[in-house]
Amino acid sequence: MGTRAPRWPRDNLPTGNLVVVTDTSPSPAADTSTYRLWKTATRLPFGSRLFSAAVSLKAPYFRTAYPHVTELRPGRCVVRGPGWWGNRNHIGTFHVIAACNLAEMAMGMLAEATVPATHRWIPVGMNVRYPAKSTGGMTVTAEWTELPDFASMTTGQDVEVPLRFVDDAGVEPVVGSITIRVSPKKKT
User: Which Gene3D superfamilies match (predicted)?
Assistant: First the structure.
């Protein structure tokens, strides 16, 4: 008998070199319907664009910033908006409200991908400052480094979603966060 072909990629590693890759991102107990839809859509050509368009149909105001969800997983969402004229203000910079639209979409998709089906959420506040100008496209990242303990939330609880705004030049023209109220769904 000859040697068998490797069955697993690790079978190709030289002896003594063990590589371990661990996903340390926070994860809820079960995938939400939004996160399952994202995983299904992104298997298709242009799937992230289709997903972004579907979200924009469900929440039409997001379309004004022409958002593109580029990454989504429990605890993290990244949304990009182009530097096109529709996102510009009268002085030619990226309009802060367009940036806020991208931020709200990033926060909303993070919440939809993370908050378990036993709970609901609603935004209750946004805090933004804009210390610098931006003339390029904008990428907004909403991220929880540690997931809230949803199981312990028996009444409404305010949870902050930190946001990071970075333009094409690497400048952070906006600083902000969105507060959401998370509460258990009413039993019917």
Answer: Hotdog Thioesterase
